[in-house]
């Protein structure tokens, strides 16, 4: 099967080159035969890549340890579904999976546009398949998942069929790993589609709003998958790594955040171009920047230039990635400069207090956040290059910059949509924001009176209340008007209002999700922790809870040994949960993991980790965290998914209903 995989990759590389060349000739010479060849080549690329994926999966399920990738990422005792997901858990396999996703998107885009956008499509195919050429070359020449496992025997590299494999990284043996990487990869790869249409628009000179409208849903799909992928990664870190948090400003976490920031800026600013014909260069730059940051994130994860628990082992693909990124940057800047006159704005800003300006301030903050995160992520590399010493930028630095930017963006989620296009009058501002502002001040004073003194927490809760009031008021106002006009109850009116303008009201639901998530983030200002030693039968108190140790023991299966502590958790004398924090030692990889025990409520999480045991082995050492409002982060994530799905759904079109008097008159005419 490894030989079959080699054959497929060897055939795939020239096939991608052929398709890219024919797409270029089809666009340049307007030859239909070339265009059809490029389309058929795109479908063929997807078929070959799919066969390669299936071949690698077959090798892992069979346990063929003569294959280097199978040997390095699976073992006989590994459960079957983890053998399947090892495809994207290992370096070489994940690159092949990346290639398969982009070929799938390419085939889907070609099929969607089989009868339209004829002028753009050759260059769209060229751009997407050009990216595929790069990743196929990586898989064939640098990171081939079908290579044979070799060992140095008497100075000679010799093929070896091992009896068992090294096993999957224990940190990745978690249910979230089944869906987190594919969702994040789809978000990364999805940025290729808007980028391809942007490059096609630059090459053809079709720089109106048509390419924007074509790719709007693709941009939202990519943004949605990036959002969910980032949040799932936070959930995985929270329940698997055992340090008590879900975001540590780790370089690989930041790498996924970077394209999300620019993508979020784009899905807001694109509305200005659609409505006013403004910000054409800006939007083009955001689309291109998002694609480049997605490629950069993939590079950062795999090159070994930064240290991260999320990163793959160091590999030799770094120089190739760097060269590809530089080529894409130079090409993109060159094309924008070439078309700079056609990209000039049709209108200009008329007032600082307008919806256009609100979106622009929103975009500037997102770009400022992108620059800050990028600088903080690369600072250790830059410092090492200039001083020879790697200086790490930690969470305090990121929080100092990102908290005020985040709160300003949170405020704009409520203010921006209520500003009028062109200019907003003082009277309109007073009418829209007067009551929410007064109520928010009352909430702020109330929180201060009840003992909250953290300035950022006060600001976050107050702004969250302000934004939530505005969004709910918008929903209710629209629903009341519709309820009166259509004679519907308020809930039906709210549902129909949402379905008739999914882009607007789905966006409001996403904003509600952001408010809920921010409230969860703010809970971190009140985190507390303790370390306790406890023996079987012992107990201790922390944060209003009583912890009673029932048993300290261990268990073993074919894959790992578990050392656990069974606890009972009491609140006000009433048992609320059974907790089992543990440590595991995986036999194949000889690596330990921490298994966290969590008691979650809307108010707080009680998070328990086994640190070790006393010298005599009789007492367990536990680290306990009280993390307020963490569940709000996950609830906000669910709301965000709902809002994103709504935004992607086409608007519901109602049949026009005649007034009752006209319907009666019509029935009388028919009867006559």
Give your account of this protein's structure.
This protein has helices spanning 2-29, 32-62, 68-73, 80-89, 91-112, 121-142, 176-190, 192-204, 210-240, 251-276, 280-303, 318-338, 355-387, 395-415, 426-449, 455-486, 490-500, 502-522, 630-648, 660-671; strands at residues 150-153, 156-159, 528-535, 539-542, 545-556, 560-571, 574-579, 582-586, 591-595, 597-600, 604-613, 619-628. With 672 residues, the chain is α+β, with helices and mostly antiparallel strands. It has three domains: 1-173, Four Helix Bundle (Hemerythrin (Met), subunit A); 179-343 and 353-382, no CATH class; 525-631, Tick-borne Encephalitis virus Glycoprotein, domain 1, CATH 2.60.98. The protein is globular and about 80 Å long. The N and C termini lie far apart (79 Å). The model is unreliable at 656-672 (pLDDT under 50).
Summarize the structure.
The chain has 672 residues and is of the alpha+beta class.
Distinctive features:
single chain, 672 residues, alpha+beta, Four Helix Bundle (Hemerythrin (Met), subunit A), Tick-borne Encephalitis virus Glycoprotein, domain 1, 3 domains, six-stranded antiparallel beta sheet, four-stranded antiparallel beta sheet, 20 helices, 12% strand, globular, disordered C terminus
């Amino acid at each position: 099967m490894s030989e079959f995989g080699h054959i497929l990759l060897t055939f795939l590389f020239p096939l991608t080159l052929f398709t890219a060349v024919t797409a270029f000739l089809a666009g340049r010479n307007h030859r239909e035969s070339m265009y059809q060849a490029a389309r058929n080549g795109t479908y063929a690329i997807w078929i070959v890549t799919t066969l390669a994926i299936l071949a690698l999966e077959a090798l892992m399920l069979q346990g063929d340890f003569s294959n280097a990738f199978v040997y390095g990422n699976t073992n006989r005792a590994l459960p079957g579904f983890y053998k399947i997901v090892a495809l994207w858990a290992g370096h070489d396999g994940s690159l092949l999976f990346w290639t398969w996703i982009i070929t799938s998107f390419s085939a889907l885009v070609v099929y969607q546009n089989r009868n339209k956008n004829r002028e753009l499509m050759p260059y769209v195919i060229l751009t997407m398949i050009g990216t595929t050429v790069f990743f196929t070359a990586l898989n064939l020449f640098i990171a081939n998942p079908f290579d044979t496992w070799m060992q140095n025997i008497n100075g000679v590299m010799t093929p070896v069929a091992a009896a068992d494999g090294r096993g999957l990284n224990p940190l990745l043996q978690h249910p979230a790993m089944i869906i987190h990487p594919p969702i994040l990869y789809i978000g990364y790869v999805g940025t290729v589609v808007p980028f391809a249409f942007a490059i096609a628009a630059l090459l053809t000179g079709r720089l109106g709003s048509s390419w924007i409208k074509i790719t709007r849903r693709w941009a939202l799909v990519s943004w949605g998958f990036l959002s969910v992928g980032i949040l799932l990664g936070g959930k995985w870190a929270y329940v698997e790594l055992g340090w008590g948090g879900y975001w540590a400003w780790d370089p690989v976490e930041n790498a996924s955040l970077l394209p999300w920031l620019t993508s979020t800026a784009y899905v807001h600013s694109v509305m200005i171009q659609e409505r006013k014909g403004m910000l054409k260069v800006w939007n083009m730059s955001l689309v291109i920047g998002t694609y480049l940051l997605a490629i950069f994130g993939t590079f950062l994860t795999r090159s070994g230039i930064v240290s991260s628990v999320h990163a793959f082992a160091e590999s030799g693909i770094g120089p190739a990635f760097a060269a590809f990124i530089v080529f894409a940057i130079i090409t993109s800047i060159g094309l924008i400069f070439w078309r700079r006159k056609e990209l000039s704005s049709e209108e200009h800003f008329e007032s600082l207090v307008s919806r256009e300006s609100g979106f622009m301030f929103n975009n500037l903050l997102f770009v400022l956040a992108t620059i800050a995160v990028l600088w903080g992520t690369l600072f250790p590399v830059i410092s090492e290059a200039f001083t020879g010493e790697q200086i790490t930028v930690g969470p305090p630095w990121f929080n100092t910059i990102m908290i005020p930017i985040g709160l300003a963006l949170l405020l704009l989620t409520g203010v921006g949509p209520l500003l009028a296009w062109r200019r907003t009058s003082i009277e309109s501002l007073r009418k829209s924001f007067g009551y929410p502002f007064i109520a928010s001040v009352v909430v702020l004073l109330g929180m201060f009176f009840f003992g909250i003194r953290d300035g950022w927490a006060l600001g976050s809760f107050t702004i969250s209340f302000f934004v939530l009031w505005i969004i709910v008021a918008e929903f209710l106002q629209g629903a009341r008007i519709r309820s009166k006009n259509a004679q519907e109850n308020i809930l039906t009116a709210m549902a129909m209002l949402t379905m008739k303008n999914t882009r607007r009201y789905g966006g409001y639901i996403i904003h509600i999700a952001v408010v809920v998530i921010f409230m969860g983030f703010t809970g971190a200002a009140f985190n507390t922790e303790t370390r306790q030693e406890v023996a079987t039968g012992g107990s201790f108190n922390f944060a209003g809870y009583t912890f009673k140790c029932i048993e300290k023991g261990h268990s073993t299966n074919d894959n790992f040994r578990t050392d656990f502590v069974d606890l009972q958790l009491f609140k006000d004398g009433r048992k609320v949960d059974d907790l089992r924090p543990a440590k595991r030692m995986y036999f194949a990889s000889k690596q330990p993991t921490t298994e966290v025990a969590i008691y979650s409520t809307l108010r707080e999480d009680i998070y328990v980790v086994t640190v070790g045991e006393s010298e005599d082995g009789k007492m367990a050492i536990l680290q306990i965290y009280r993390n307020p409002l963490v569940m709000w982060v996950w609830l906000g994530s669910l709301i965000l998914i709902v809002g994103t799905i709504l935004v992607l759904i086409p608007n519901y079109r109602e049949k026009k209903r005649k007034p009752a008097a006209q319907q009666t008159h019509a029935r009388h005419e028919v009867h006559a």
